[in-house]
């Protein structure tokens, strides 16, 4: 029993270790103006106010970069999911020449080190005259998330028995009808999980957002936040409030699919 | 987060005997029905958008980075649209530069340390979670979820604030504990110190994924294996070696591989802390590539660095990648 309580103590200490930055972000953000930067020891806050959130929200660039981030991320993810589903259905439901190579291509493509493709991507976007344009980011995030979406959705489609579709087709549904009425609804949870993964990848992305967009009006939130010192100076309270606002969408999505993302990897492990 | 993951529902699909994957049975019926030309071309039509996108947005850049690495391409050539071939000059420039070797070595040491630390602690926490009282386990899981979900730029900002020289909570705490020398101590005065903080941040944020997935693997190990080991009188370590390790090894390899891919190319955290400084001491390969290519507009040289980056990454992961492809090929 002593061993068990020792383990529990270690477990709780680790929980504090993981939780502390979130705690510190929120409490710093809630501190009244002028009390954040202090030599006093203020681990536990005594008063709370939302002024920092108002400051962050109304800072020039915050709302526009939030809007840009949402626009770019959602567009890219939507495109990746739609294109990913069609590819997943093809890989999972049809036998055709070249199927195996295509599946392997998807597997390899999701390991492509995108960071190492920075220079050609930059040159390509410049040639396409998309440099400084949000659509360049949409294209990059679409490309980054597509192989992953197609691969994961293929797994989900494989999990739906083909007999269900066939039964619908016997009952007079066309191929499209069977897909729309049988497969698509069953694919729901898989679609949610996959889009959240893709969303978080794009939501976090920094390097391409920094390189491909230089005008302030088109910045995304990570880039805007990385330059917070120009916006906030040493106003750490405001910076923490902005970070907290940036975290909310990701946290909400994480909570939705937490269980799914955990069990995921086990199936893909290489034996031996 | 881009990762090699199949999904929960994919697992049952694996139970179908390999001789009869759904696609093949479906396809066989297709042929018997003597489908129309449209039916036969349907899979290709469905694949076309994805294939075009991948060839255009991944395949072409991969070719282009090799081609660019043999060109002299600075701002002048770019603006004039000139094509100047220089053979291996860019590679010679890069490889003769002592800084490149320093940076490569630093990147390797950094990647290996971060991967070993995060996978090791991830495994430790996964093992620990099995013996925790349920409410403690849930508390730990929620705490890890918070760390995991925080966007990279948000956590980087929070760490900057915690490690702040004058008002950071860490220095204040250390002073309060009696370490007076930490008053006004700068954690970013040397490259090693800066990279240690970056490493801590990355490990802190990487552990949750590792711990959760390894824990899921541990939970899947049949109970009777442990009972049998207990009856045979095995010690804790012997049980780990004989029962846990063989069951978890492949999963562990998988997450180590993924961590290597992710940690090798870290850019945001390093850049945001000190832009690779002080005086270039925390510069890693992705930062070097950015500095050469984007900041200095030496696109040819930067492309050579990118190619060398891919070569290094390829060398580290080659063995595992080959095995992974073979296994997956067998499964398809």
Please describe what this structure looks like.
- The complex is a heterodimer of chains A (272) and B (332).
- Chain A has 272 residues and is mostly helical.
- In chain A, helix 9 runs antiparallel to helix 13.
- Chain A is globular, with a radius of gyration of 23 Å.
- The relative contact order of chain A is 0.14.
- Chain B is mainly α and 332 residues long.
- Chain B has one domain: MetI-like fold.
- Chain B is globular, with a radius of gyration of 25 Å.
- Chains A and B meet through helix 1, helix 3, helix 4, helix 5 and helix 6 of A and helix 1, helix 2, helix 3, helix 6 and helix 7 of B.
Please give a handful of descriptors for the protein shown.
heterodimer; A: 272 residues; mainly alpha; 13 helices; globular; B: 332 residues
Which secondary-structure class do the elements of chain A indicate?
mainly alpha
Report how far apart the termini of chain B are: 24 Å
Total strands of chain B: 0
Rg over C-alpha atoms of chain A, rounded to the nearest angstrom: 23 Å
Query: Average pLDDT of chain B, to the nearest integer?
Result: 86
Produce a short descriptive summary:
The complex is a heterodimer of chains A (272) and B (332). Chain A has 13 helices and no strands. Chain A is mainly alpha-helical and 272 residues long.
